[in-house]
Design brief:
- The chain has 140 residues and is an alpha/beta fold.
- It is built from six helices and six strands, in the order βαβαβααβαβαβ.
- It is globular and about 35 Å long.
- It is 38% helix and 21% strand.
- It has a six-stranded parallel beta sheet, with helices on both faces.
- It has one domain (2-132): Response regulator (Rossmann fold, 3-Layer(aba) Sandwich).
- Helix 5 links the parallel strand 4 (77-82) and strand 5 (101-104).
């Protein structure tokens, strides 16, 4: 199973990445996508039935850009982790992306592993293989 992770434009990207990675089971191909364009390319070029998309938008502009991809996300196993400040507008926007699960950072990380396991249960799982889409100064 593949997991594509998009973390949006955030200053603490490495910290969030480590938190997400430590909460996931260790049997995946994990792709770290650093831009909406990379996410769109991955969604268009991958068999969506074998992929989970983990989205952690940080700003309103991230949600607006993700909204533009909602047709590509429809029918996909999508998990959304919203910023810690629970706001009704962000939650409504997140629902428009047809996710299987929505939670808020950092509290939502405690259940993330179980959610991913449940989404993958029917599929064969692979060992983790972290791949970075581009080197932009971001390292785990």
């Amino acid at each position: 199973m593949k997991i594509a992770v998009y973390m949006g434009a955030r200053q603490s990207r490495g910290e969030i990445y480590h938190s997400i990675l430590s909460s996931l089971p260790d049997r995946f191909d994990l792709f770290i996508l650093q831009s909406i364009e990379e996410l769109e390319s991955q969604l268009r070029s991958t068999d969506m039935s074998s992929m989970i998309t983990l989205l952690a938008p940080n700003e309103r502009s991230d949600m607006e850009a993700l909204y533009g991809l909602r047709d590509l996300l429809r029918g996909m196993r999508t998990v959304i982790l919203l910023p810690g400040h629970q706001n009704k507008e962000a939650l409504n926007s997140a629902h428009s992306l047809y996710p299987r699960y929505i939670s808020f950072l950092p509290d939502g990380l405690q259940h993330l592993g179980s959610v991913i396991e449940n989404l993958c249960r029917a599929d064969g799982l692979k060992r983790i293989n972290v791949q970075y889409s581009q080197d932009k100064g971001f390292a785990p």
